[in-house]
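Anyone? Bumping this.
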Amino acid sequence: MPEAIEQDNTQLRLHEITRALNSGMFVHVRRMLAHMAPCDIALLLESSPHKGRTVLWQLVDSDLQGDILEELSEDVRNGIISQMDPALIAAATEDMDDDDLAEMLRSLPDTIYQEVIGSMASQDRERAALALSYPEESAGAIMNTDTVTIRPDVTLDVVLRYLRLKGELPEGTDELYVVDKDNCFIGAVSLALLLTRSPDLTVRTVMDDHCESIPVTMDESEVAQLFERHNWISAPVVDEHQHLLGRITIDDIVDVIREDAEHSMMSMAGLDDEEDTFAPVVKSTKRRSVWLGVNLITALLAAFVASFFESTLDILPVLAVLNGIVPSMGGVAGSQTLTLVIRGMAVGHINQANQRFLLAKEFAIGALNGVLWALLIAGVVALWKWDFTLGCVIAFAMFMNLLAAGIAGASIPLFLKRLNIDPALAGGVVLTTVTDIVGIFAFLGTATWFLLP
Amino acid sequence: MPEAIEQDNTQLRLHEITRALNSGMFVHVRRMLAHMAPCDIALLLESSPHKGRTVLWQLVDSDLQGDILEELSEDVRNGIISQMDPALIAAATEDMDDDDLAEMLRSLPDTIYQEVIGSMASQDRERAALALSYPEESAGAIMNTDTVTIRPDVTLDVVLRYLRLKGELPEGTDELYVVDKDNCFIGAVSLALLLTRSPDLTVRTVMDDHCESIPVTMDESEVAQLFERHNWISAPVVDEHQHLLGRITIDDIVDVIREDAEHSMMSMAGLDDEEDTFAPVVKSTKRRSVWLGVNLITALLAAFVASFFESTLDILPVLAVLNGIVPSMGGVAGSQTLTLVIRGMAVGHINQANQRFLLAKEFAIGALNGVLWALLIAGVVALWKWDFTLGCVIAFAMFMNLLAAGIAGASIPLFLKRLNIDPALAGGVVLTTVTDIVGIFAFLGTATWFLLP
């Protein structure tokens, strides 16, 4: 009898294993692992501190290691592989899909890579060499070569007999590809069609010859957008002469979509998107310090700008108290725009044609926001500090900075993209530099002009 | 002949249409739209300013409107629907999948909803009522009822003949579901199996009876995690008695994955994840102002804390110049931790068992970061302001704040989740409140203690 999945079934089991592991009940853990699917073991490894991973890995059935490695994120996989014998790694690669194999080999350190390649069976080595020949993040790098091809002139009955002889279809096969004698892709026949059409018909009459194929050089994110728009389950990959090279399946596309979406979020916090939640402390500290260093420079820059106004601050210490408000609001308003534009670029909604409209729109929002929050802060400050002129000064600074935030938030990512710099990574820091400096200048500068005796 | 997709084909075409639209060449635009797939027209609408959308929509063939509405995001769809006649909306819903239909109906304003339901054919109305009976974001809400079911005791040959009689399978069908006489789900037979196994075998002997089924009440994000882990293309949905209710297909799961991943990123900037890049200015301003208001309160809170030290700032204006550095570094370090934990929670890597480890790890990183950046800032400030004690004061504040940032970044999302508050939405603002206040207190407080004459 099939079992309905309990809501927390997996989480409960993971919890139990972790407890057993902590109490040193290794035999019990090994027995539990033997009943788990590779994907669940992968989840367990991802959720474990790095020390626990090493112990767990030694308790895993070695036949499953290849399947588990396929499911792990790069960081976690590298941590495990670095402690494995190259011959064992080579053995684990035997059952891997071409694309996962290539991805894993790419991430190996050079010395281990050589040893692993050396220990592989010759056919696997050829398979690896082919997969590695396509650039990373291209359609070629996420494609599999296990396509089932048929000729256009045979009848469906012949195809049906051929499939029954074959006995098995590669995982995730939803259509067979029709090729001519030069192996050029000319159409596709879905399994559903094979099952519902009369066996006397020829392949040519039933095949979908408007079926789109993917150039092997296309960027994986573009491929993912096509899959998403067209609701594909798999798609054929061809070279520039329409020769069929392989196919891309939806499971790999799901990974690309997840990674792309996470990439923006992680990059905006200055994190690597493969960053492992349970990595060792020193490794995590090192990785994150780059971003803190960049931020220190911008913070010092802001302090440097403020230092021009030290004599003003000396006379009016109340300015020091209020000085953080305007940059803070500018930062938030700017990062709203920035996030929206980065998302819009990632899903392909922003192009040459609508850029100008977008800038004008964010300029207008900045102005509207500016008026709104300027009036509010003027009221608050005038009442709090009982100083109407001070209220006007901070209102002016607020308006200027929210306007600057709107313009900067919309234009910085477009500008960075033109320079081929990842806007998700660099956008935030450039933006806060702008809103900090404009905010401080506008507030302290106006105050110096109007308030100094 | 099938065509390989040019890298920028779609974008180029969109650009051309936008240009034609702007020059008022409506007949030309209508002709171009007639040759485009619904998904491409949807992309065009998403990438157009709201005024352009209205014009475009009137040029679209009304037969395609249902398919296009299915592909649009909620915000854009609502904008278009609000200008449509309810009878036309009802007509457009005829070809929609159950789940898309329910999603659209849910997002309609009450008055339009009543009119649309009133104009629908009775069978569509029943279909809609059923789909709407499941809670939003549950498995039931993203399921379709178009399953193909077979009995366990017939031979494959009977199934094959049945399918040929049926003539067509629902889109995205990769397996048939086996049910008993009470419509209880007992297993699945893939199309690939049907094609490769001997027709004399019975369904029972070839079916996969370990196939997992999804409870109709399961949360859609959990369903998506299962699909992702198991590389499913579709999965059966059952009620609490194992009765087969429908199936979920990977195309809907892809939407869930994309939305979940975007949700975190958008929420962290205080944006709605359905936020439309090209919405009208006033609407966008209103939506974003909530977040700016919340931020203004935290900024005023920080100013209020700083105002305790106004007399200190009066004597030592250099503190005002440096006062932004420590809170800024705390904010960045904290949001790195926060982002990592929110991502970890979203992909299911963080659970009861490893929470304590995570807190300890982030505490250690905070301490390590604290020492590192405290030493650096001490050096910079001591040299810049030629004041060793001042360097020590800012170093101490930096250490304390980075430690606080690590602890707050890891514990705030865990804490918010326990209170059933979305950590992606509220986490950032709670965090900056903590790092701002700790940063200001630590810096100005220590300075008051040690530096005042």
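Late reply, but here is one note on the structure posted above: Chain A has three domains: 9-142, 149-249, 281-451.
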